[in-house]
Amino acid sequence: MALKTSSCRLLFKFIHQGAVAPLAGQNALRSVLGWSSTRGYYNSGKPSYAGAGGAAHVRVVDLRSDTVTKPGPAMRQAMAEAKVGDDVMGEDPTVNELQKIAADIFGMEAALFVPSGTMSNLIAVMVHCRERGDEVIVGDLSHLHIYEQGGSAQLAGVHSTTVTTLPDGTFDLEQLESKIRHGYPDPHYPRSRLVCVENTHNIQGGRVLPLAFLQEVRALADRYGLSVHMDGARIMNAAVAQGVPPSAILQHTDTVSVCLSKGLGAPVGTMLAGPQDFISRAVRCRKALGGGMRQAGILAAAGKLSLQNMVGRLEEDHRNAKTFAQALLDCNPNLFAVDLAAVETNILRFRLQDLSLSPCEFCDRMAQVSKSEEAALGQGIQVLMYPHFGNSVRAVWHLGISPEDTQLAIQKMQFVVSQHVMENIRAQ
Ligand SMILES: *Cc1c(COP(=O)(O)O)cnc(C)c1O
Question: Which residues does this entry mark as bearing N6-(pyridoxal phosphate)lysine (predicted)?
Answer without folding.
Answer: 262
